[in-house]
Amino acid sequence: MSFSERAHDLLGRLVRASAFERFLISTSALLLSVFIGALIILGAGRMTDCASAAYTIAVPGKFVTTTLPGLVPGVVKSVLPGGLWPSQAVFAMGFCYDPFAVYDLLFLGALGDVLNNPLNSQFATTIAETTILMFTGVAVAVAFRADIFNIGVQGQLVVGALTTGVVLTYVAPPLAGLGVLATIVLLPLGLLLGGVAGGAYAAVPGALKAYADANEVITTIMLNFVATSIALFLVSREKYFKDPESFANQTVNLPDVALFPSWLFRARDDVSLLAFAFAVVVLVGIWYLLQHTPFGYDLRTSGLQPDAAEYGGVDADRTIVSSMTLSGALAGIGGAVYVLMVLGNFQTGVPDYGFDGITVSILAGNNPLGVGLAAFLFGVLKSGSIVVQVGSDVPPTLVGVLRGLIILFVAMPEFFRMIGQKFGSFGRPGEPVATDGGSGGGSDE
Amino acid sequence: MSDDRRVVGTARSAVFSTYDRLFVGRGRLQQAVIGIVLLAAVGLVAAGLLAPQSDAGRLFAVLTADSTLAATLRLSVPIAFAALGGIFAEKSGVINIGLEGLLIISAFVGIWATDVTGSVWYGLIGGVLASTLLAGLFAIVCIEFRADQIIAGLAVWLIALGLAPFLSSVIYGSKNSTSVDTFPTLPDMGIPVLSDAVTAPMPVVGVAPVDIPFFGALFDASPPVYLMLLAVALSWYTLHRTAFGRWVEASGENPKALDTAGVNVHRVRYAAVLLSGVLAGVGGAALALGVGQFTGNGPTMVNGKGFIAIVAYLFGNYNPVGALASTMLFAGLDATQLTLQARDVFQVPTELVRTIPYVTVIVVLALFGRTRIPSAGGEHYESGEDE
Asked: Which of A112, A48, A54, A258 is nearest to A173 (CA)?
């Protein structure tokens, strides 16, 4: 057997292993999204005006990333001015945005100068975003495992954040003098409040699905709108919870003892390694809960085989409500972390952590441990979008487009399987590959 | 038999058939809610006529204001078009949860194309093209690559939610676009006979159609409203009276039978999903061109209308006319809250009033959501013949 045959056989066997296949599909989806994203950046670069092209494509020739005067977009086709590659390029097109530069800012900018200074403020932002996305990602994942689409993570996060922010404004100030002791009491209390509120808010669509057959996709999306409106109502009026000294719609700032300690990072970077560590512990805890406890077993089987689960004595309705509640509680804790680590109070206009959580979970194959990795990737994107905003003219909402593309491509594993079959020889039926035990093609067809 | 008795008989049977439709075969809770709603409606009308100064009377005045029907019709357009599109897609077996995304993308492209071409009609066509393109992508992903329809639909929504504000920022430098022309209303359109007819006093009553209390709004609407009514009628006809309608139905209920009968299931599903893109595109473009601007902050100007549309057609039991009726209910609630805000009749906080349509959607879904989706809905179908 030649080396390449051996390699193909190995690859084929690995691809059949489902975890590895998921990883491959997620990676391919990611790369494809980045590629389509680059096309969108180029396309957008033709729709705007600029003094000189940031990026030029010349045919025949090669991709050039230098500024060429005279190739301003708006001219659909321009012939290169004399002096530059004479007689070679017959066609050249300039673009206002350079996709390579944008991706450089997006992916590497988010890390900052991490090798020399791991505590730099851009990397701090990345860690903070990652921490919150770990909660929303695992919240979506828990529901997904029970075959429930919790699109309401955004609303549950808002309700959790609101509850934590509001209640602590009354509880925290009297305890402010106690120092570390106050933190030991207030931090768990804040997280608990967020979890309970988020869980209760998610239990509603859970119960509606279980007992009234109301589609949870619709109800949770509607509850997102309701949560945003209620938060705005409560935080925009001084007779309720608005900070009277601020023009913004926000609650009174919480005392520092109620917040996550910043430890190694600077306080103004709004990040906490303690919160990050807590998020890691929660992910591992949820993984253990799903894989190694009776509750997790019930949840997973009702997701995979609802009829079999019911036959095996699982109360399907109760499982729906409890998995939704758990999912919402995780989202609510994420909201509490957002308040206690990033904001220091509650403000309206909460970023789309819930929707990013959907992508994080889908990218991670709904595996709590994978969520950690996917959340870091999205933390990089979110943090990098700020770098893009500062360092280029490309709107940072580009990340929103990538978010949707990634979900779309992960949702179509068949596409990558077809491509894999076309370009790799593994798994192709009828191919006389000399395999040792005949374990290859055919057995899984 | 005298004419009187025949009239009484017809009225009695009408009352009984309405009663049957409303109450028979429903659960206690549903019956109670329907009863309470009916009683409240009767009470409201009575209060409006007998005690116009009471709170209920003033609410009745708000509900019967010209502006309320006008706003209801205007707000119905995007929801009704998206709902019609959703009916075709879902009946064919492809659950299109991405209607919201189709509305968003067509709202933006509608404005942009109007801005570029200078004509609202070209803008409308531009919006329809964009929405159909995105629906086509969704169709390929679902039908060719067997993607999970719910997840792919969510992706369509999120792609549009990212792409429209992105393009707006690229072109206009802000998530909100510049202002463009809006659709003129019927009297201003300058259609030779029609535009004059609706503003001129009618021969016998001496009132112009546009000045008729409440219903005058029907004659003073913009083209998308009339397109909506036309689309509802055409959709009903297509679904219930044509071969294509039967194919769509069979493709969702029993694709194997359709395949056996020699009709390509994939082709029917492609047609239905593309049609949902066309219809949602009209709705989204009309929404934006009614305002004259695309606003892309937060959930954008579409603001959940695509999801409300899904509930509207579920509540309307996949019937275009029923979908229009439930659309008018949700849009009517939205219009009422707008009029309430504008008139400031009751001192109710706007943020909470704004949630009324969303809460109603949840209540309706919880009470009446147990509709029967097509038996092959959400499932991939692979024809056996090429094996």
From this structure: A258
Question: Given CB atoms, is B26 within the 8 Å cutoff of chain A?
Answer: no
Inspect the interface and report whether the beta carbons of A404 and B162 lie closer than 8 Å.
yes
445 residues of chain A, pLDDT tens digit each: 565 566 666 555 544 556 777 888 888 889 999 999 999 999 888 888 777 777 777 665 544 444 444 444 433 334 344 334 433 455 667 788 888 989 999 998 888 888 888 888 899 999 999 999 999 999 999 999 999 999 999 999 999 999 999 999 999 888 888 888 889 999 999 999 999 999 999 999 999 999 888 889 889 989 999 999 999 999 998 888 999 888 889 999 999 888 998 878 887 788 899 999 999 999 999 999 999 999 998 888 888 888 888 888 888 889 999 999 999 999 999 999 999 999 999 999 899 899 999 999 998 989 999 999 999 999 999 999 999 988 888 898 899 999 899 989 988 887 887 887 777 644 444 333 333 333 333 333 3
**Distance (Å, rounded) from C-alpha B111 to C-alpha B105?**
10
Is the distance from CB of B289 to CB of B182 less than 8 angstroms? yes
From the list B160, B365, B367, the residue facing A215 with the nearest CB is B365
Residues of chain A with CATH 1.10.3470: 108-392
CB of A233 within 8 Å of a chain B CB? The answer is yes
Domains of chain B as residue ranges with CATH: 68-185+221-368 (1.10.3470.10)
Q: Is domain A108-392 annotated with CATH 1.10.3470? A: yes
Distance CA A317, CA B180 (A): 51
Bridge partners (DSSP) of residue A347 are A250
Model pTM? 0.86
Judged by CB atoms closer than 8 Å, whether chains meet at A407 and B145 is answered as no
How distant is the alpha carbon of residue B243 from its chain centre?
25
Q: How many residues does chain B have?
A: 387
